[in-house]
């Protein structure tokens, strides 16, 4: 039987704020997103929607320690995850012209082909940090109250 862990009670929080950005050809999806988070001082957020295309994709496939790179024209099928200036955790799926779809952990090296339109939800009362977890062996999400908006 699994246990569901409540990371943070949600009473008395401000409403989510929204950011809509567009990336242009040649921009790196991850580094552009991280730069935007830093510029806007977003400590806790989530990806609400992304559409666009890639000309090069670099991801970490499940249970693999090394990056995998793909060159071609790809549609971004999905991008989901938690984001913030103290660390993000993002998974991407993309498909080729035959509809073959791949997905994994988003890494630097995903270059925009035509555009990428991102909608980001920003939770101004919260801060997302990553702390080492002895159960998974990876830095995992920890939710705290925001130091910027206390």
pLDDT < 50 stretches: none
Given helix and strand content, the structural type is mainly beta
Cα gyration radius (Å): 16 Å
How many beta-strand runs? 8
Number of helices: 1
Looking at CATH, the homologous superfamily is Hypothetical protein, similar to alpha- acetolactate decarboxylase, domain 2
**Average pLDDT value?**
92
Report the portion of residues in β strands. Answer: over 45%
SSE string, helices as H and strands as E = EHEEEEEEE
Q: What can be said about the biggest beta sheet?
A: 6 strands, antiparallel
Q: Indicate the CATH class.
A: Alpha Beta
CATH architecture: 2-Layer Sandwich
Q: Report the span from N to C terminus.
A: 37 Å
Helix content: under 10%
CATH topology: 60s Ribosomal Protein L30, Chain: A
Q: Which term fits the overall shape?
A: globular
Q: List the quaternary state of the chains.
A: single chain
Number of domains: 1
GO molecular function: DNA binding
Keywords: DNA-binding
Protein name: DNA-binding protein
Organism: Endozoicomonas gorgoniicola
What's the short version?
The chain is mainly beta. It contains one helix and eight strands.
Which features does this protein show?
60s Ribosomal Protein L30, Chain: A, 1 helix, 8 strands, mainly beta, DNA-binding, two-stranded antiparallel sheet, PPC_dom, DNA binding, DNA-binding protein, 8% helix, single chain, 150 residues
């Amino acid at each position: 039987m699994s246990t569901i862990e409540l990371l943070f009670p949600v009473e008395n929080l401000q409403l989510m704020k929204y950011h809509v950005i567009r990336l242009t050809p040649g921009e790196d999806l991850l580094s552009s997103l991280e730069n935007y988070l830093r510029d806007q001082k977003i400590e806790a957020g989530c990806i609400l929607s992304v559409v666009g295309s890639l000309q090069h994709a670099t991801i970490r496939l499940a249970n693999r320690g090394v990056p995998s790179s793909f060159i071609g024209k790809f549609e971004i099928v999905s991008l989901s995850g938690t984001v913030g200036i103290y660390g993000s955790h993002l998974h991407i799926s993309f498909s080729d012209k035959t509809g073959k779809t791949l997905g994994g952990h988003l890494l630097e090296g995903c270059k925009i082909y035509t555009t990428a339109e991102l909608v980001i939800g920003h939770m101004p009362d919260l801060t997302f940090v990553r702390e080492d977890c002895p159960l998974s062996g990876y830095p995992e999400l920890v939710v705290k109250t925001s130091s910027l908006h206390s």
